[in-house]
Design goal:
- Helix 4 packs antiparallel against helix 5 and helix 10 (about 280-315) packs parallel to helix 15.
- This protein has helices spanning about 10-40, 50-80, 80-100, 105-140, 140-175, 175-180, 180-195, 210-230, 245-265, 280-315, 320-330, 330-350, 355-370, 380-405, 415-460, 465-470, 475-485, 490, 495-500, 500-510, 515-545, 565-575, and strands at about 200-205, 555, 560-565, 585-590.
- The protein is an all-alpha fold.
- The strands form two sheets. Strands 1-4 form a two-stranded antiparallel sheet.
- Helices cover about 75% and strands about 0% of the residues.
- It comes from Winogradskya humida.
- Keywords: Cell membrane, Membrane, Transmembrane, Transmembrane helix, Transport.
Amino acid sequence: MLAVDHPRYKWVALSNTTLGTLLATINSSIVLISLPAIFKGIHLNALEPGNVSYLLWMLMGYMLVTAVLVVTLGRLGDMYGRVKIYNAGFAIFTLTSVILALDPFDGGGGALWLIGWRVLQAVGGAMLMANSAAIITDAFSSKQRGMALGVNIVAALAGSFIGLVVGGVLAEWDWRSVFWVNIPLGILGTVWAYRSLHDTGVRRKAKIDWWGNATFAIGLTAVLAAITYGIQPYGGHTMGWTSPWVLTGLIGGGLVLVAFGIIETRVADPMFPLALFRNTAFTSGNIASLLSAVARGGLQFMLIIWLQGIWLPLHGYDYEQTPLWAGIYLVPLTIGFLVAGPLAGALSDRFGPRLFAAGGLLVMAGSFVGMLLLPSDFNYAVFALLIFVNGLGGGLFAAPNTSLVMSSVPANMRGAASGMRATFQNAGQVLSIGLFFSLMVAGLAGSLPSTLSSGLTAQGVSAATADQVAQIPPVGTLFAAFLGYNPIAELLGQPTLDSLPAQNADTLTGLEFFPRLISGPFHDGLVIVFWLAIAMTVIGALASLLRGKPAPKEDETPEGEFVAHEAELASELAEAQGLAPATRVAEPIDAPGVKA
């Protein structure tokens, strides 16, 4: 076990937190691409009306829970020790992976088992994500922090895309293996963390802000859950935004979040000091992070639908193999992250982070422009180049943005700041599903019914049957493309297929009919999605250029650690919250070379 003042300790901290973050983010996407195999494994038809909720919660439950809890768990890390919370998260994450792989049920029961335990797994993942950046910021001096955070954050972002490849490969073998794969790495990381990591940061003694925690969790959960259900049809409408439950969640959740803001300005020890948002660098960095996460999440889902539902079948890939090959064909995106991320972190340490963060988002915007020009049946070399450039842009942005955010707060607030940063990122992923799926469904609703009806009648299906099938909610067609299979046989039914000439029936249920049918309407929706992504990344780039007050300076100790001069800023925060300025904000815990 290395002491905290050992020159290699910071690299141990970086290695372990990067492993933890990588595992947590891989699991946000590994299920995403494995859903066809999972639903087949538990014998559940995802497109039956009553089963759509299972699909959505299996898809979004993990991301929703991590978005809601990371701020609270980061704040608990500030109070009780970041390493203590982080280590517990590794253990919870590993244990729940074992339980998920042992799902004993079929059908709805099997789905509920997976959803419930994924929620608990997300608690462990949130513990890891909320505290990893703060642990790294504590361990590294300001001269190396950008590089260290670059490695960690790029691992987090790349993990969401690595999960696509790993999920595709493992789902081809056995759906339970997407959970088994976590176990050996989880055990290694848990034992390693408990044996090697120390709390070297500043710990702030405070009471738990129960009302703040409760209102934040309830409000954000209500809003994100309402967005989830807004995608589903309701009362004859293609989507559920007019549903009383959805409106209640959006309006009620928003009001509860307003109450959270009021509470946080009046309690002595707030869960999150909202006065930090008075720091322009902190606020603009988080806004840029949110916009980037929404754009990146939208890209991820659209590319999976594009590949699994359209491009791969048109190029002769069987539907059962499309998850695997979709993951493989998205590898250039991951490579772009891995190439640019650590390099951008190291360069931003020398030349400053703002231009790298803004430039990365502008590079992403340029790649979205290129994708706008691609036809549905694209040339893969051009597609690979564009997603590689998109990955480069994301890598250029990630580490400098994180360094901006984390270096703009006092040391005793780093856990809460890290949690808020992760909340913006994870909430962006959930928002991207609701936003981009809604835009895509709206685009499909205009042209898909007539396209579907004319395509079916051209193959001999009666006009009455074709019109009936054409009235299905567009979200069902979108989920079919997302899951990578042809729903035509299920929509028509076997009696209708049997009444058709064999050649026509084979055409309807073959590889090309469904992809060619939806490619035009899908591309219409894709144009709207990519224009919105361009707007978000450009606005995020402008936000990244905003400057605020200089971050608190740091004294470098001989061992390369630091102690932040935070008393002045902490007093400002206390005054902003209506409290008396503190004469002593915190005491360093186990900080080498520093006496309390």
